[in-house]
Write a structure and sequence with these properties.
The complex is a heterodimer of chains A (about 190) and B (about 55).
Chain A: H1 8-42, E1 71-74, E2 80-87, E3 90-92, E4 95-99, E5 103-110, E6 115-118, E7 125-128, E8 134-139, E9 144-149, E10 162-168, H2 170-179
Parallel strand pairs in A: 2-5, 4-10
Antiparallel strand pairs in A: 1-2, 2-3, 5-8, 6-7, 9-10
Chain B: H1 10-18, H2 22-47
The chains are: A alpha+beta (about 190), B mainly alpha (about 55).
Chain lengths: ~190, ~55
């Protein structure tokens, strides 16, 4: 038995419902896009996109990622910067000290494989690629200790590649800074 | 081939279709509301409280 063709009257009614449903879905998609645009433009919150290259074979010999320069520092204008090196299978330094509620500039690179950096409980999340410097600014809220795992499979020891972040008050941060030019909590 | 045990008459089809696809709309509405609600909850209560990364 062949199906009967739907009568023209009901077809128009169903088509009307479909059009209204499609309009609702388009509105929902526009709302999601507007949220992304608002987050990107108003808060400038976008994935790290600035491509900055560095010679991964000489990291330990010269430049900002030599051993003495790793850790947290404050420049003459009071800006806090972290220099961090990722390599199989640890971060250097293994433990960071950061001030609470202050914008901190992170500069991270890798000397061997592709790694990932994530600080738990925050939106800090970036790839760490040899030959490139990952740079972003973030503010950590809440004093305490946070885990900092590598989130990109980097080899057989990947699961053991964890660091720590100590978020301390600005006064304690300044106090610790008096005893050392570069801060870490290794 | 699966077949409906009874075939609706054109009059019955017209009567049902003229009321609009209310059931399908209800089902789609609930599904979209659940997905969008979960997205909104993550955005407001997980993503935003975790702070900015610029």
């Amino acid at each position: 038995m062949s199906p009967e063709a739907p009568p023209a009257g009901s077809e128009a009614i169903v088509a009307g419902y479909e059009a209204r449903w499609a309009a609702c879905m388009v509105a929902l998609i526009l709302l999601l896009l507007a949220t992304i645009v608002f987050t990107s433009l108003h808060w400038a919150m976008v994935p790290p996109s600035r491509v900055e290259v560095i010679d991964a074979t000489t990291l330990h010999l010269k430049g900002e990622f030599i051993e003495d320069n790793l850790g947290t520092s404050v420049d003459s204008r009071g800006r806090v910067t972290v220099h961090l090196l990722a390599q199989q299978y640890s971060f250097h330094p293994q433990c960071l000290v950061l001030p609470e509620g202050e914008p901190v500039t992170f500069r991270i690179t890798s000397s061997d494989a592709v790694h990932g950096l994530q600080i738990m409980g925050t939106n800090i999340n970036t790839m760490v690629v040899p030959g490139y410097v990952s740079t972003f600014v973030a503010t950590l809220n809440g004093v305490g200790e946070r885990a900092m795992p590598c989130h990109e499979f980097c080899g057989v020891g990947h699961a053991a590649m964890w660091g720590r972040v100590q978020v301390v008050s600005r006064s304690e941060f300044d106090q610790r800074l008096r005893s050392s030019r570069k801060l870490s909590c290794v | 081939m699966l077949r409906s045990p009874t075939q609706a008459s054109p009059e019955a089809f017209e009567r049902a279709a003229s009321e609009g696809p209310i059931g399908a709309l209800f089902l789609c509405g609930i599904a979209v509301a659940i997905v969008f609600g979960i997205w909104l909850a993550f955005y407001l209560f997980a993503f935003l409280p975790r702070g900015l990364m610029q």
